[in-house]
Amino acid sequence: MLRSAATRALALLITLSACAGEPDPLDEGELQRLARAQGDARGDGFAGLYLLSSDPGDCDCPEIDGVDLCRTLSLGEGVIPVALSQHDGLLVIDLGSIVAYIGGVDQDGAFTVAAILNAGLVAATGELLSRIDGELSDAGFDGVLQNRLVGAFLTEDVDCRVSASIRAVSLAP
Known about the structure:
It is a single chain. This protein is of the alpha+beta class. It has a single domain (5-170), classed as Porin (Beta Barrel). Helix content is 17%, strand content 50%. It is built from three helices and ten strands. The strands form two sheets. The chain has an eight-stranded antiparallel barrel with strand order 1-4-5-6-7-8-9-10. Strand 6 (100-105) and strand 7 form a beta hairpin. It starts with a helix and ends with a strand. The model is unreliable at 5-18 (pLDDT under 50).
């Protein structure tokens, strides 16, 4: 799947902000701030059911005892059903039994949502820090997913990151 120009620009902006002395986009405090943020959107116009797919991006995670952490921490191949809930400037992206992201959404569709999970979700100790930055439209949304595992996996300490371009298609008629 080809990345849209907006998605590439968003990924570049996230990378540049991390290099320019801005807060680490996957810092726990930053993710807590993002999850509490609300945008300027009104109503529930972005709510609905979507089908999400992803294209792998950068990953600096190791392979440990035959387990590819890049694959483990990504959304994988295929399509995942997701539900979006919106109450004015608050957006929740629910990936079913996997994770629910929460954060702000603006009237123009720009959003940032975050989640902090116990790394036991991926058979590790520590935390899985995650965020999605994207843009909603009538047809769905495009964005960038970033995950960071901070903790231990099997016998090794780990602090690694994986990203993916994501695209969701609305199931609304």
